[in-house]
Amino acid sequence: MSRETVMDKETLAAFADGELSPEEAARVVMHLADHPQDQAYVDDLMAANAALVRAFAGPVNEPVPARFQQLLTPEAAPQPGATVVPFRARLRRRAPVLAGLGGALAAAFVGALVLMQPDAADPTLTAGPVAPGSALHGVLAGQPSGQPVAYGAGELTVLASMPAESGFCREVELLDRAARRMQVALACHDGAGWSVDVAMSETLSPGAEGQDFLPASGAEGVLLDRWLERRGAGLALTAEEEAAAIAEGWAR
Amino acid sequence: MAPGPDETFRTDLVALVPRLRRFALSLTGNPQDGDDLVQAACEKALRNAAQFTPGTRMDSWMYRIVQTLWIDDRRRNRTRGTTIAPEDANLSDGGRGANLPEDRMMLGKVRDAMGRLPEPQRAVLSLVAIEGLSYKDAAEVLEIPVGTVMSRLSRAREALLPQLGLSQGRRQ
After folding, report:
1. C-beta atoms of B125 and A14 within 8 A
2. Does domain B1-83 have CATH number 1.10.1740.10?
3. C-alpha of A158 from chain center
4. Between chain B's N and C termini, which has fewer beta carbons within 10 Å?
């Protein structure tokens, strides 16, 4: 049974939907003060509207999927599976504190990277499987967090490694100061190999005198967190845990 | 330079994709069908970009394309009901939208109730309650009179509210 109202329901609905003129709305407000059953109906309408918004909120909280990026801006997504979305600079909640380990190992990889870079002119991070033997693959497989590696015109740094539901994830940052571009990507290893779940790019603007470049749109990065959540990623590995994971080839 | 819609058109269209996906999800009830619908709508928009008048509302234009394609598809596939896979639905609540179990249940009920509404009512309710269009804008998208928008909304809510445990006189 639906609630009975004194005032006609279409007017109450128009009020709840913000369709009334200020004068009409004021008249309804006066009426509601004296008619709790009508107020309750308006409350229900607003609760239903709010529930509808939340029930279908998923797409507006997610990055635009790759298929639409490719369809609508082909030049922005050069590789299959690429997901490049603008992102707001994230706070470095996982400071690159994993210092110092595996120096020799890291140096070996740096050397290898320079030789292996397939497209050194303008390497970017794009979503999709990471080819074994590629520069990115080398970094993901063996570079400890917090140690930048030359990558094309910029430098690539693994920010942190996290355990995930089916393996591990690593957050990487590609910083190209000359081109004023920064990319952050989330790459995950699911037992079979590495793939980039999502890559986000941001234009940089100069920071204060003598400081590093800072992203132009400073705000917390909720987007990456969503992808981490989707992967069931946990807290960042300690330096020791990460070293062990590298040594074991990210096997679980 | 490849022929086709200009940069602004494409950029504006990309910016609309999240809302179009939300609209399509509310119509189809599941993310896969919703995204297929949005993809078809974007392809149609690119093919017919010349018909779009710059300066007019692209969102209304795109909502109309999405809705028309959806209705066409529904007419062709009468037997296929709206399916709402629970795991898909959970995926699409934004992850953190519904942490409390009651809240999850409520959002599940909302999706279920939407899926049961007749198509014309579902489209109107989605445009007004979720997309936030005015009655007049919704009427233009659907190419129906404002009075029809209001009556469809009214019928949609009469059906929806009791299913959500609302408007059953519990406070009266």
Report:
1. no
2. yes
3. 15
4. N
